[in-house]
Amino acid sequence: MKVKTLIASMAVAIGVTLSTGVASAQTLTMGVRGGPESLDPHFSALGSHAEAAKHMYDTLVWSGDDLQIEAGLATSWKPLDDTTWEFKLREGVKFHDGSDFDAEDVKFSIERIPAVSGPTTTTIYVRRVAGVEIIDPYTIHIKTNGPAATLPYDFVRLFIVSADAAKDYSTPETAAEGFNGGPAAVGTGPYKLVSWEPKGDLVLERFDDYWRGKGPWEKVIRKEIPNDSSRLAALKAGQVDVINYVSSIDYLALQRDASVDAVVGDSVYIMNLQLDQRDDTPKVRAKDGSKLDKNPLQDPKVREAIDLAIDRETMVGIVLEGLGKPANQMMPPGFFGSSEKIPARVHDAAKAKALLAEAGYPDGFQIDLYCTSDRLPGDGAICQGLGQMFSQIGIKTNVNAVSKTVYFPAQSRLEYSVFMNGWGTLTGEASYTLGSLAHSKNPEVKMGAFNRVAYKNDKVDELMQKGAMTLDADKRRALYEEAMELTMADRVYIPVVQLQTVWAAKAGKLSFRPRFDEDTLAFFIKPKN
Amino acid sequence: MLGFVIQRLLQAFVVMAAMSVIVFVGVYAIGNPVEIIIPPEATEEIRAEVIRKLGLDLPLWQQYFIFVTNLVQGDFGRSYIYNVPVLELIAGRLPATAELVLISIISATVLGVTLGVYAGYRPNSIISKAIMAISVLGFSVPSFWVGLILILTFAVNLGVLPAGGRGEVISFLGVEWSFLTIDGLSHILLPALNLAFFKLAMMIRLARAGTREIMLTDTIKFARAAGISEGRILRRHLMKLISVPIITVFGLELGSTLAFAVVTETIFSWPGIGKLIIDSITVLDRPVMVAYLILTALLFVLINLTVDLVFALIDPRIRAGAA
User: Fold this and answer.
1) Which residues have a Cβ under 8 Å from the Cβ of A515 and sit 6 or more positions away?
2) CA-CA distance, A419 to A375, in Å (whole number)?
3) Looking at chain A, which residue has its C-alpha nearest residue B93?
């Protein structure tokens, strides 16, 4: 045979062999919108990073489907005094390399974070930790800087890595190589690493000694497909078994498609309208363009009018195509600090107009409304809906839905007066939300970091600070509920709608419960049979 | 000749320097990258800490100065988002884009020139008219739409080709290529087709215009008079004469596609550098942006330099002029 033909046929043979691939019936292939930035769980605090990390690693405290905390690698915890918490650790847990999990690993993980965390910094999870003391292999004492009532909530994203495997890979230069390359990527999670490429596929295989039990899949492949249409196409073509973040337009079409199951879950994200309280605010003016004597948003009647102008039912039904719920406070119902006393919001355009006239604006005024166009589903559309609703009561609204790349820096420079973005209470309790938004900006008490509307209610400040020091859960809940009620009554933050997230899977193949934090976790996705 | 090359390389440096300044100033004008990356739970002091760590609290000229100092030592810095050295990040994803772009441009050129020469040679045949009609489509239809239709038809409805992603790879010369496997080829087919569509249309039109023009010149008339066969005329004379604009466009398209095949890479989830740059821009990952755009500037200059040198090879008139 001629050499050329021989080589050609060999090439074909090799190609065919390699392309048959491994088609395991026990493999779950997931198409996800975003993946990890690194295999070092301490590198990034982004949700998509944490979701991927939860496959390979466990957190000290587990955040359940409804974001309320449960036992994870720590089985119980209690405060011993004002500055000490005791955590009891789970016994019998193994790492992927067979070694045992104990207090050393927890101490190592906590101490490693400040060195290796990236710009989306994970130091937030250990910011209250002043020191870690090992009492015995399954008990640790955490010393905090001041009373830290919500310390367990901070630990829902504290991933535990193996002290032995990662000890040489805990500086900024070595962490990426050690974890992405493999040797340090040892966790206690349900799946072990097989291979990973940044923004590519994360291939995992089952860890049979996982403490919760054997996962349902032998192999898990997470494919990163950021484009919504491509992700859906991959599902319909059969390349993936399940996808997350289905857009509302695609959802409508999917409801008529028998080959795909759509699963809808409430999201933790609530869209909040924020009204600037500064005396001089840049984006509010009279209808003819001239400057107003004072900032109308400082008048509670004006704020109530704006609240009454919003027709939340229509927003959910028409703008979000049914994928949402009207929101009356900044956290979903049932969260720690959500108040049942806050009434459902009312839509009353006539009353709104009357209130504006009472406040001295019978002809209304003009505002520039800003929001993101590419961060959460429906954000730009909701903004446009709001613009129309405000115009109906006489407030001429110029809607600007801009890219998040532009929005967040500009918002932090306080360039906006009336703006809306989504806020998700990812720890399931109020200090996360009210502490960052409702408390006045005060670096000394470490609160109000995201309060960009100059909102200051002394009673709310007092309640939040007291809450941070109150270690008794019931007392703290009461304080937070009162703080939420006061903040909502002030109407500087006006919640609009709670979003819903949609997953899609091959029809009849899978079953899983949607999570509030929108995490898609392979361990909890079961085959339907 | 050497002077010519050196002059071009100096131009390259100037362009790269200008590019880096533009990116720095541009990112600075949009705002602090930290705002986009920082998680909501962060307190003021953590924010300040991150800003300090990334060196974003220094004045702009100082940040630029640090950047240039590192650059001369060959250090492009680390990505804010991935904490991996930027060059490693780009180099890791370059083979994917390179193979996609080369396959699509080379096939588009070969096919396009062939069809275009035919259309120019026999302008009134039905086939030629069909070719021209297709080329109009190639221009006017947006590539993201074509991409989605291709996926819909071949992956979803017919189920014969995959909907996205890159196929199996084989290591060759230390780099991983996917076109060496059948699975890889099946993954590369649709995105290459998508990318090639527009280039194909352009090459057809260029080749046709060139052919029509050259076929009417005296050179061809005399060649025919000298008894040279049609085939030889087409191969030896026509191709050389129409090649100058075609090679120019080839070079331009190669550069721009290599750098900016973003749409196709996004639709087909192709793990290349086009997606990397657009993602970096969205999160203001400045080190990646600067490095990428500087390298792109260098790439363009080098490609244009090569094109000019190839001209000198092909066209003796240019050679004579330079000397």
Assistant:
1) A65, A67, A265, A521
2) 14
3) A198
- In angstroms, the CA A486 to CA A493 distance is 11
Interatomic CA distance for residues A86 and A96, integer angstroms: 27
Residues A370-400 have pLDDT tens digits of 998 888 888 889 999 999 999 999 999 999 9
Q: Which residues 172-191 of A have a C-beta within 8 angstroms of B?
A: 172, 175-176, 180
pTM for the full model? 0.78
User: Does the pLDDT of residue B156 top 70, yes or no?
Assistant: yes
Q: Which residues of B touch A423 (CB under 8 A)?
A: 40
Distance CA A480, CA A156 (A): 20
Measured distance CA(A490)–CA(A105) in Å, rounded: 46
Distance from C-alpha of A520 to C-alpha of A513, rounded to nearest angstrom:
9
By Cβ distance, the residue of B41, B165, B268 closest to A436 is B41
Q: CA A89, CA A84: separation in Å to the nearest integer?
A: 16
- Of A303, A143, A225, whose CA–CA distance to A504 is shortest? A225
**Taking CB atoms and an 8 Å cutoff, what residues of chain A touch B160?**
none
Q: What angle do CA B269, B20, B277 make, to 5 degrees?
A: 5
Distance CA A265, CA A513 (A): 8
Listed range (A3-17, A493-507, B39-53, B258-272) with the worst mean pLDDT: A3-17
Q: If pLDDT is split at 50, 70 and 90, which confidence band does A16 have? A: very low
A201, B98, B101, B167, B189 from B104: Cα distances, Å = 24, 10, 5, 16, 9
* Cβ neighbourhood burial of B270 (10 Å; 0-12, 13-18, 19+): buried
Q: Which residues of A touch B37 (CB under 8 A)?
A: 119-120
Interchain CB distance below 8 Å, A412 and B282? no
Distance CA A405, CA A375 (A): 10
Q: Model confidence at A21, in pLDDT bands (50, 70, 90)?
A: very low
Nearest CB among A43, A199, A443 relative to B83 is that of A43
Write out the two tokens for A402: 């801009």
B226 three-state secondary structure: coil
Among partner residues B31, B39, B162, which is closest to A409 by beta-carbon distance?
B31
Closest Cα in chain A, distance from residue B106 (Å):
21
CA distance B259 to A466: 55
The distance of A27 to chain B (nearest Cα, Å) reads: 17
- B33: chain A residues, CB-CB within 8 Å: 119
Testing the interface with B: which of A14, A18, A122 to mutate, by most B Cβ within 10 A? A18
> Which bin fits A456, alpha (ψ -120 to 50), beta or left (φ > 0)?
beta
Mean pLDDT of A296-320: 93
Contact map slice: A 373-432 vs B, CB within 8 A = 403-406, 408-413, 423-424, 426-427, 432
Q: Which of A200, A229, A412 sits opposite B148 (nearest CB)?
A: A229
Contact A125, A114 (CB under 8 A): no
Kindly report, residue by residue over A225-255, the tens digit of the pLDDT: 888 888 898 898 888 999 998 888 888 888 8
What ipTM goes with this model? 0.72
**What's A347's DSSP letter?**
-
Angstrom distance (rounded) from CA B135 to CA B323: 40
Nearest neighbour of A230 by CB, restricted to B31, B93, B163: B163
Closest by alpha carbon to A518, among A65, A42, A53, A30? A65
Under an 8 A CB cutoff, do B266 and A443 touch?
no
State in Å, rounded, how far the first CA of chain B is from the last one.
Answer: 8
Local structure of residue B165 (DSSP, 8 states): S
pLDDT at position A7, please? 56
Q: Is the pLDDT of residue A13 over 50?
A: no
